[in-house]
């Protein structure tokens, strides 16, 4: 089953490369068992009235470099990591506007 990033305007999905630096994108499940950390993740996403499921993920582009440990060439998310890289509300509005224009052009 393909993995998609749960951030509303993020288009990253499993098997694609990062748009920024052409590195592979990895996906991380929400910390459903750690309620305080889960609340920080969801709050930083600006989706307070939303509850993620065990089938939803965030991609690696929403975490800073210090959120990862690299062991034997494999990138692991630290169990204390909090995602902090998200588009601003202005960016979200612009992207939604561009999507609407794109849809109008298609029809």
TrEMBL record:
<keyword id="KW-0862">Zinc</keyword>
<dbReference type="GO" id="GO:0003677">
    <property type="term" value="F:DNA binding"/>
</dbReference>
<feature type="domain" description="THAP-type">
    <location>
        <begin position="1"/>
        <end position="86"/>
    </location>
</feature>
<dbReference type="GO" id="GO:0008270">
    <property type="term" value="F:zinc ion binding"/>
</dbReference>
<keyword id="KW-0479">Metal-binding</keyword>
<dbReference type="InterPro" id="IPR006612">
    <property type="entry name" value="THAP_Znf"/>
</dbReference>
<dbReference type="Pfam" id="PF05485">
    <property type="entry name" value="THAP"/>
</dbReference>
<dbReference type="InterPro" id="IPR052224">
    <property type="entry name" value="THAP_domain_protein"/>
</dbReference>
<keyword id="KW-0175">Coiled coil</keyword>
<protein>
    <recommendedName>
        <fullName>THAP domain-containing protein 5</fullName>
    </recommendedName>
</protein>
<keyword id="KW-0238">DNA-binding</keyword>
<keyword id="KW-0863">Zinc-finger</keyword>
<keyword id="KW-0539">Nucleus</keyword>
<dbReference type="GO" id="GO:0005634">
    <property type="term" value="C:nucleus"/>
</dbReference>
């Amino acid at each position: 089953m393909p993995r998609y990033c749960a951030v509303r305007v993020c288009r990253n999905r499993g098997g694609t490369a990062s748009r920024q630096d052409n590195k592979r994108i990895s996906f991380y499940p929400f910390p459903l068992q750690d309620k305080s950390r889960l609340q920080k993740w969801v709050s930083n996403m600006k989706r307070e009235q939303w509850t993620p499921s065990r089938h939803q993920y965030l991609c690696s582009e929403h975490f800073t470099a210090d959120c990862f440990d690299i062991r034997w060439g494999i990138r692991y998310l630290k169990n204390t990591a909090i995602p902090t890289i998200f588009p601003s509300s202005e960016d979200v509005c612009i992207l939604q506007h561009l999507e609407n224009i794109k849809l109008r052009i298609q029809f």
